[in-house]
Amino acid sequence: MSEHVDVLIIGAGLSGIGAAATLATRQPDKTYLVLERRPSSGGTWDLFRYPGVRSDSDMYTLGYRFKPWLGDKALADGASILDYVRETAREYGVDERIRYDQHVTSADWDSESATWRVAVDEGDESKTYTASFLWSCTGYYNYDEGYTPEFTGRERFRGEIVHPQHWPADLTYAGKKVVVIGSGATAVTLVPAMADDAAKITMLQRSPTYILSLPARDPLALGLRKVLPRQAAYNVTRIKNIAQASALYNVSQKQPRLVRRLIRRLNQKQLPEGYPVDVHFKPTYGPWDQRLCLVPNGDLFRAIRHGKAEVVTDTIDTFTETGLRLGSGAELEADIIITATGLNLRLFGGVEVTVDGEKLDAPSTMAYRGLMLSDLPNFAYTVGYTNASWTLKADLVAEFVCRLLQHMTEVGARTVVPVRQAGVGEEPFMDFEAGYVLRSLDELPKQGDVEPWKLKQSWFHDVRTIRRTDLDDGVLQFR
């Protein structure tokens, strides 16, 4: 017999645990379960085990709104973030509602009963859950397989090839020559983390990324803790950091040349005199057309300055037995090659979604406020910002879903569904030039050219609309 709950949450990572904690607090009468595919909670922060793994957003905004971050570091290591997420789960009783090793394969909405029927593989067995409301908190990455381009001659290389998403626990790199392919957040984390132990480490990039140094500790946050209650100190720091990040993003969009010059000047100050900044740290795109990388206390620049790491900007011609031959003809020797070449997107954790037996065609749907889909009843998903901390949006989604559930109870509705109005124009789901987005745009829902279908990558905007909007907006249909 199927187990039934009011709300079924898929995913016990940062988003799922935050969703469940908010639900438990704001809708205590609702029954819920969290289904987690892996044998442990934490999502990204439990899966990724590569050296130096850390946040690429400050913890005062990556942390939950309702749970102050009390660590000393603004950019925290993965283990500390995992502890924070699991502590939240224990504190709000979420840990008792998580079911592990639950691989959700399909979810079918039945209009007659107003119920989701969710199929799950549990090892060699299959089981079914039913729920009145389904909430996908799986993120949008494919956690089974990262993105690796087709490299010519890869099979010839005699050393080890590693993707950071699947870091071998027994990998030894001390005293070895290491090449990290990539220039994103993972690459700029790995290089300084491995530089002290590796004999030589090289970051090989096809093109540069914008990189900014951020103090590892936030002096204001640490000072406020001494004079204000924890939550108050956290709130002030959080708003300050949101405002700073928002201002940088907005200026980057309006005055990209100004921000480009500023970042170049800051980078130049932290690199050796005469260093070819424009070769290795001058991207061809504008600031924030792709995500900006943060490095704590300039650790990447420090490793370069001290001669412990180098950056090479070139293309790969082929792998060789001993390393890589580049497009320029130069050779890079390596014992270990790390392909920090990005991730793949996977919508809703790969779950096959159907409505009355008809498979959902995601690209034909439109995102409502970036948290529901047109013509898909009693369903919400959590996807964070591309230009700010993921959790800022996740918190707002959780608040909205709880408000939505309360409204359904008050008006006696069994179902809620966003219905797209005629004449709303279509735009890509994300206006973002990152490779992982561009590779998958054709598989994603659309956004509209007007609100509430237009996605705004702005916390200040979403606070006004998602948190305070009238739910009887003519788009949400309650039945």
Topology:
Blueprint: E1 3-10, H1 14-26, E2 32-35, H2 44-47, H3 59-62, H4 78-91, E3 98-99, E4 103-110, E5 115-122, E6 125-136, E7 160-162, E8 177-181, H5 185-195, E9 200-205, E10 211-214, H6 219-225, H7 230-254, H8 256-270, H9 277-280, E11 293-296, H10 299-305, E12 309-313, E13 316-319, E14 323-326, E15 331-333, E16 336-339, E17 352-355, E18 358-359, E19 367-368, E20 372-373, E21 379-381, H11 390-411, E22 416-418, E23 426-428, H12 435-438, E24 446-448, H13 459-465, E25 476-478
Parallel strand pairs: 1-2, 1-6, 2-3, 4-17, 6-21, 7-16, 8-9, 8-16, 9-12, 10-11
Antiparallel strand pairs: 4-5, 5-6, 13-14, 14-15, 17-18, 19-20, 22-25, 23-24
Helix pairs in contact: 1-4, 1-11, 5-10, 6-7, 7-8
